[in-house]
Amino acid sequence: MSEVGDGKLVGIVLVSHSAAVASSVAELAQGLSGAGASVPVAPAGGTESGDLGTSAELIAAAAASVDRGAGVAVLTDLGSAVLTVKALLAEGDELPENTRLVDAPFLEGAVAAVVTASTGADLDAVAAAASEAYGYRKV
């Protein structure tokens, strides 16, 4: 487990086809977690021109911006976002070392990931918490 004060928190990247959705989910996750800005969270939504889609360049830049040495958890919304992140991981040099694509629901997983990362948990624990969000029942 990382110490919260040592600057080595797991970073979170939220990849959506929409810049507005990625930014809003990042803001909501940080706000609901009570973690504020202490957990490095970066949205990577849309394309460089502001259109709907995904951008390998935006994803790589977001991952670099949240890397504090404890790993980077990447959560995605839909199909091509997943494929883009998988392609970046396969290339091997586009994303920070210890970057992981997490299979989790986008909104609930983001909240769980940020809350867990704020405790200083390691990448395995952050990924597990985000994935466990699939089991959250609403009724």
What features would you describe in this structure?
- The protein is α/β, with parallel strands linked by helices and 139 residues long.
- The protein has one domain (11-134): Rossmann fold (3-Layer(aba) Sandwich), CATH 3.40.50.
- 45% of the residues lie in helices and 14% in strands.
- It contains 5 helices and 4 strands.
- It has helices spanning 19-33, 56-66, 79-91, 106-118, 123-132; strands spanning 11-16, 41-45, 72-76, 99-101.
- Strands 2-1-3-4 form a 4-stranded parallel beta sheet, with helices on both faces.
- The longest helix is centred in the first third of the chain and has 15 residues, at 19-33.
- Residues 9-139 form the PTS EIIA type-4 domain.
- Keywords: Transferase.
- This is PTS system fructose subfamily transporter subunit IIA.
CATH architecture: 3-Layer(aba) Sandwich
Shape: globular
Helix content: 40-55%
The CATH superfamily title: Phosphotransferase system, mannose-type IIA component
- Per DSSP E runs of 2 or more residues, the count of β-strands stands at 4
In percent, how much strand structure appears in the residues? 5-15%
> Could you spell the SSE succession in H and E letters?
EHEHEHEHH
**Termini Cα gap:** 34 Å
> What is the CATH class?
Alpha Beta
Number of helices: 5
List the uncertain runs. none
Structural class: alpha/beta
The major β-sheet equals: 4 strands, parallel
The radius of gyration computed from the alpha-carbon positions, rounded to a whole number of angstroms, is: 14 Å
Mean pLDDT: 92
- CATH topology name: Rossmann fold
In total, how many domains does the architecture comprise? 1
Domain PTS EIIA type-4: 9-139
GO molecular function, one term: phosphoenolpyruvate-glycerone phosphotransferase activity
Protein name: PTS system fructose subfamily transporter subunit IIA
Keywords: Transferase
